[in-house]
C-alpha cells in the first residue's frame, strides 16, 4: 500500500491534467466536426464518430492507468525487443494492409483498423534512449556515435514503403532530441539550408533574373545562398578570419562582376560562373585542410559540396520521387499553381472555416463550414478548423497555449531525470508532440505542406490516440520513479 501511495504522489498530475483537458476539448471538436442534424444529440451513440471517440478515450485512460501501474524498469529492459518487434511489423504491414486512399499502412484487426506507424514512435524512442544510456553518449562527437541515427531512419524507410510519407517525416523530430544530446548545431543548420535551397529553387525556378536574360532567378539565388553560407561558416569556425574575407571577396566579387557584364555587356547565364566559384571554393578548402591539417576546412568543403548536390537533385526529387499529389500540394503551398477547387481545396476551405469563427467563434455545433461538410477530413487531419470556427481566435489560443504548456512541462520533466534514459525518452516525447502540433496547425493555416498527420488528442481515431497516450504515459511512469533512483 505504501508503494502505491508513493507512486500516486510522484506522478506529475499537472501533465495528467493538461492531458485530460485536451482529451475533453478534442472530443468536443470531434462532436462539432461530425455533428449531423438528422441525429441531433446522439453524441453517445456508438454508431457515430463522437460515440466511438468516447470508446477510444476510455480505452486510452485505461491504457494510461495500466502503464502507470507497471514497473518502470520493464520499459528499459524490453526497449530493444519492442523496437525490433515494431520493425518486423512495419516491414510486414504493406503485405497485410488494405489500400486506403493509396496508403498501405492500416492493418485490419477484427472490425477495427490499426496503424502500426503510430505505435512504433514509442518503440523507437525507447530504443534510442537505451542506446544513448548504454554506450554513455555524453556528447555526439565521434562518427561512431551517429550510428543511433540508423535507429531513426530504419522505421522511416519502412513507413515510406507503406506510402505514408507524412507519418515517416514525424521521425525526423527525434533529431531535436539529438541536438539536446550534443548534435552539432551546424548539422541542424545544414538541414535547414537544404530546405531553404529546395523552397527558393522551386519557388523562383520559372522567373528570369531580368527581362530577356538567360538567367534562372531561383538557381541564381540558391548559388548565392551557398556562397554566403560557406563564407559565414568560415567566419564562425575559422580563426583568424582572413580565409573568410578572402573567399568572400573572390566569390561575391566575381559574382557581382559577372552580373554586371551579363546585364550591360553580353547576356549570358551567370549561374555557370557561380557554379565554378563554388567548385573552386571546395578545392581551395580541401587544399587548406591538407596543408594546415584542420578538419574544419574539410567539413565546410563537405557542406558546400552537399549543398550543390542537394540543389541539383531537387528537380529529380520533385519530379521523380514525390507522388503526384505530394508534388501538387507543394506547388500550391509555394504559390506555383493556383488550384482552389482541387489540390488547394482542403486548405482553402480550412482557412475559410477558421476565418469565419472570428474572435469568439460561432459556438458549439453552430459552425456552418463544418456542418455542411465543406472541409474534407475535418474530423481527422483538419480538425483544428473546427476549433477555429466554433471557438474562434480565443479557442484556438487556448488550445495552442495548452499544447505549449504541455511541451514546456515535458522539457521540465526531462531535465529533472537522474539518468540519461529518462531524459532522452522525455525529449523524444516532447519532439514528437511539437512536430505534430506545428505541422498539423501549419498545414490547416496553409503555412506547411499537407502531409496528413493528426493533431494529438483532437483528431478522431484510436491508433493515434493510443499511440500518443502510450508515448506520454510511459514517460510519466519513468518520471514517477525518479525519486527511487535518487534514493
What topology emerges from the helices and strands here?
Elements: H1 2-10, H2 13-34, H3 49-68, H4 73-77, H5 79-96, E1 107-109, E2 112-114, H6 116-134, H7 149-160, H8 165-169, H9 174-180, H10 185-203, H11 217-237, H12 242-264, H13 271-292, H14 295-321, H15 324-333, H16 345-356, H17 368-371, H18 384-415, H19 420-444, H20 462-480, H21 482-486
Antiparallel strand pairs: 1-2
Characterization of the model:
The chain has helices at 2-10, 13-34, 49-68, 73-77, 79-96, 116-134, 149-160, 165-169, 174-180, 185-203, 217-237, 242-264, 271-292, 295-321, 324-333, 345-356, 368-371, 384-415, 420-444, 462-480, 482-486, and strands at 107-109, 112-114. With 487 residues, the chain is an all-alpha fold. The chain has two domains: 2-182 and 337-463, no CATH class; 207-330. Strands 1-2 form a two-stranded antiparallel sheet. A hairpin with a 2-residue loop joins strand 1 (107-109) and strand 2. Helix 5 (79-96) packs parallel to helix 7 (149-160).
Structural class by secondary-structure content: mainly alpha
Beta strand %: under 5%
Number of E strands: 2
User: Largest beta sheet, briefly?
Assistant: 2 strands, antiparallel
User: Roughly what is the average pLDDT, rounded to an integer?
Assistant: 83
Radius of gyration over alpha carbons?
Answer: 26 Å
Our count of domains comes out at 2
CA-CA gap between termini:
19 Å
Major beta sheet, strand line-up: 1-2
Q: Would you identify the regions where 5 or more consecutive residues have pLDDT less than 50? A: none
Shape descriptor:
globular
Instruction: Specify the number of helices.
Output: 21
The helix content, as a percent range, equals: 55-70%
Order of helices and strands: HHHHHEEHHHHHHHHHHHHHHHH
Amino acid at each position: 500500500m505504501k508503494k502505491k501511495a508513493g507512486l500516486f504522489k510522484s506522478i506529475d498530475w499537472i501533465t495528467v491534467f493538461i492531458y485530460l483537458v485536451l482529451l475533453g476539448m478534442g472530443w468536443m471538436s470531434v462532436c462539432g466536426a461530425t455533428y449531423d442534424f438528422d441525429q441531433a444529440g446522439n453524441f453517445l451513440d456508438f454508431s457515430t464518430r463522437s460515440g466511438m471517440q468516447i470508446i477510444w478515450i476510455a480505452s486510452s485512460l485505461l491504457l494510461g492507468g495500466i502503464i502507470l501501474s507497471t514497473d518502470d524498469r520493464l520499459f528499459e529492459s524490453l526497449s530493444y525487443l519492442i523496437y525490433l518487434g515494431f520493425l518486423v511489423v512495419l516491414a510486414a504491414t504493406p503485405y497485410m494492409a488494405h489500400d486506403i486512399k493509396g496508403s498501405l499502412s492500416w492493418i485490419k484487426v477484427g472490425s477495427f483498423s490499426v496503424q502500426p506507424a503510430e505505435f512504433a514512435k514509442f518503440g523507437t524512442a525507447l530504443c534510442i534512449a537505451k542506446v544513448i544510456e548504454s554506450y554513455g553518449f555524453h556528447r555526439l562527437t565521434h562518427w561512431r556515435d551517429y550510428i543511433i541515427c540508423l535507429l531513426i531512419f530504419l522505421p522511416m524507410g519502412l513507413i515510406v514503403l507503406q506510402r505514408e510519407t507524412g507519418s515517416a517525416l514525424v521521425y525526423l523530430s527525434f533529431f531535436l532530441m539529438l541536438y539536446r544530446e550534443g548534435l552539432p548545431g551546424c548539422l541542424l543548420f545544414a538541414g535547414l539550408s537544404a530546405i531553404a535551397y529546395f523552397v527558393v529553387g522551386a519557388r523562383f525556378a520559372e522567373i528570369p533574373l531580368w527581362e530577356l536574360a538567360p538567367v534562372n532567378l531561383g538557381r541564381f539565388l540558391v548559388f548565392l545562398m551557398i556562397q554566403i553560407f560557406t563564407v559565414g561558416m568560415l567566419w564562425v569556425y575559422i580563426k583568424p578570419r582572413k580565409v573568410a574575407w578572402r573567399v568572400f571577396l573572390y566569390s561575391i566579387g566575381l559574382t557581382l562582376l559577372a552580373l554586371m557584364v551579363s546585364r550591360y555587356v553580353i547576356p549570358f547565364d551567370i549561374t555557370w560562373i557561380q557554379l565554378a566559384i563554388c567548385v573552386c571554393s571546395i578545392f581551395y578548402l580541401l587544399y587548406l585542410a591538407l596543408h594546415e591539417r584542420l578538419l574544419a576546412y574539410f567539413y565546410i568543403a563537405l557542406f558546400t559540396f552537399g549543398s550543390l548536390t542537394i540543389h541539383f537533385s531537387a528537380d529529380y526529387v520533385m519530379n521523380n520521387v514525390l507522388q503526384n499529389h505530394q508534388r501538387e500540394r507543394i506547388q500550391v503551398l509555394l504559390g506555383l499553381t493556383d488550384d482552389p477547387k482541387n489540390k488547394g481545396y482542403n486548405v482553402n476551405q480550412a482557412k475559410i472555416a477558421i476565418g469565419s469563427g472570428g474572435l469568439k467563434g460561432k459556438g458549439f455545433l453552430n459552425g456552418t463550414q463544418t456542418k455542411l461538410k465543406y472541409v474534407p477530413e475535418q474530423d481527422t487531419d483538419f480538425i483544428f478548423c473546427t476549433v477555429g470556427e466554433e471557438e474562434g481566435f480565443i479557442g484556438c489560443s487556448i488550445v495552442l497555449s495548452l499544447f505549449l504548456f504541455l511541451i514546456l512541462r515535458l522539457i521540465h520533466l526531462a531535465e529533472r531525470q537522474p539518468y540519461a534514459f529518462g531524459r532522452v525518452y522525455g525529449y523524444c516525447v516532447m519532439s514528437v508532440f511539437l512536430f505534430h502540433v506545428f505541422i498539423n496547425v501549419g498545414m490547416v493555416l496553409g503555412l506547411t505542406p499537407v502531409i496528413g498527420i493528426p493533431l494529438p488528442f483532437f483528431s478522431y481515431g484510436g491508433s493515434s490516440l493510443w499511440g500518443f497516450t502510450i508515448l506520454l504515459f510511459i514517460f510519466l511512469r519513468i518520471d514517477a520513479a525518479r525519486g527511487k533512483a535518487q534514493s
